[in-house]
Design a protein that fits this description.
With 307 residues, the chain is α/β, with parallel strands linked by helices. It has a single domain, classed as Rossmann fold (3-Layer(aba) Sandwich). It is built from eleven helices and six strands. Strands 3-2-1-4-6-5 form a six-stranded mixed β-sheet, sandwiched between helices. A hairpin with a 2-residue loop joins strand 5 and strand 6. Helix 1 packs antiparallel against helix 2, helix 6 crosses helix 8 and helix 6 packs antiparallel against helix 9.
C-alpha cells in the first residue's frame, strides 16, 4: 500500500457484542447504577474498542511528536521557537510533565522530532528519534504550511508509530505534540473545518497579552482569507495550515496487523479535550496534556474501577 492509499481504507467498527457484554457486567457490579458517572461509559466504550468485555490498559504507549511552525515568525507566540528544542531536551532527559505522567502510568514514552529543523538544533538526544521532513513548516500567512510530499511523510510517521504499537501488543496509544506556534495552526484548522470564527477559538496560547491575542486573530484571519479557495477537503486544510506534528496525529493504523482506525483530531491544540478512536485491538487516546493531564488518569481509573 502506498503512502496515501491507506487513507481510503474504512475505519474498523466498534465491537457491539463486547459493548453489550460490558453493559451487562456494569448492571451486576455491586454499586448503584450510574454511581461512577462517566467512568462507567468510558469502560463500556473501551470494551467496544478493544473487542472484549473487560478492557485492559496493561500496555500503554505515549508518543510525542515535535516540530516547529513557520507561522511563529508573525509574532503569534509569547515564546521563541528555541523553546521547541529546549522541550525536546527536557523530554529526552525525563524532566517534563509528560515524563512524570509516563512514569506514573508505567508507560513507554517515545519522542519523535519531525523536522530536524527545530529553529535551534537540539543535537543528538537519547530516546528521541529523528525524521527528516524539513526545517519546520512554512509560514502559512504567506503559503501552504507543507508540500503534499511533506504532509504524506508526516502522516505516515504517525501511522507507523501506531502500527508499531499494535504489533507490540499495546492497549492504549496516547499521542501528543509540541511546537511553538501550534495553537495558531490548530486554531486555523478548527476555524475552517468547523466554520467557527477565529475570534471564538483563539486564545493566549503560551501567554499572549490581550493585544497579542488580537494580533494572532488578525494573522489567522488574513491567512484563512488568502487560502480559503484552495481548501477542498480536511486533508488540504491540514496541508495549508497544519504542522508536521499535528499531521502525525492524524493517523490511521492499518496494514498487516489488520487494524484500522482514523484519528479525526486535526487540531489538538484548541479544545484541549481528549479524542478517542477505535483501532480494533488498539485504543488510541489523543490529548494535549494541558495542566494536569488528568484525561489519561481518568481513563485508567475507569478501567480499574469498573471492569
Amino acid at each position: 500500500m502506498d503512502k496515501s492509499e491507506w487513507l481510503k481504507v474504512p475505519s474498523a467498527q466498534l465491537n457491539t457484542e463486547a459493548r453489550a457484554a460490558a453493559e451487562v457486567r456494569q448492571a451486576i457490579l455491586t454499586k448503584p447504577p450510574g454511581a461512577l458517572g462517566r467512568l462507567e461509559s468510558i469502560a463500556v466504550q473501551l470494551a467496544a474498542m478493544q473487542g472484549k468485555e473487560r478492557p485492559g490498559l496493561d500496555q500503554v504507549r505515549i508518543v510525542i511528536f515535535a516540530g516547529d511552525h513557520g507561522i511563529a515568525v508573525e509574532g503569534v507566540s509569547a515564546f521563541p521557537q528555541a523553546v521547541t528544542a529546549e522541550m525536546l531536551r527536557n523530554f529526552a532527559h525525563g524532566g517534563a510533565a509528560i515524563n512524570v505522567l509516563a512514569r506514573e502510568l508505567n508507560a513507554k514514552l517515545e519522542v519523535v522530532n519531525l523536522d530536524l529543523g527545530t529553529v535551534v538544533d537540539p543535537g543528538t538526544l537519547p530516546n528521541v528519534s529523528n525524521q527528516q521532513l524539513g526545517p519546520g513548516t512554512a509560514n502559512f500567512a504567506k503559503e501552504a504550511a507543507m508540500s503534499e510530499h511533506q504532509l504524506a511523510q508526516a502522516m505516515n510517521v504517525g501511522r507507523q508509530s501506531a502500527e508499531r504499537a499494535v504489533t507490540q501488543g499495546v492497549d492504549l496509544f496516547i499521542g501528543g505534540e509540541m511546537g511553538i506556534g501550534n495553537t495558531s495552526a490548530a486554531t486555523a484548522l478548527a476555524a475552517i473545518l468547523t466554520e467557527t470564527s477565529v475570534e471564538t477559538l483563539a486564545g493566549p496560547g503560551t501567554g499572549l497579552s490581550s493585544d497579542g491575542v488580537l494580533h494572532k486573530i488578525n494573522v489567522i484571519n488574513s491567512a484563512l482569507k488568502l487560502h480559503k479557495r484552495q481548501i477542498d477537503s480536511p486533508v488540504t486544510a491540514l496541508r495549508y495550515f497544519g504542522g508536521f506534528e499535528i499531521a502525525a496525529l492524524a493517523v490511521r493504523a492499518n496494514g498487516r496487523t489488520g487494524t484500522r482506525g482514523r484519528i479525526h483530531r486535526w487540531c489538538s491544540g484548541v479544545g484541549r479535550q481528549p479524542t478517542v478512536c477505535r483501532c480494533s485491538r488498539l485504543v488510541a487516546l489523543f490529548s494535549f496534556f494541558c495542566r494536569t493531564g488528568s484525561s489519561t488518569h481518568f481513563t485508567r481509573i475507569a478501567c480499574r474501577a469498573v471492569t
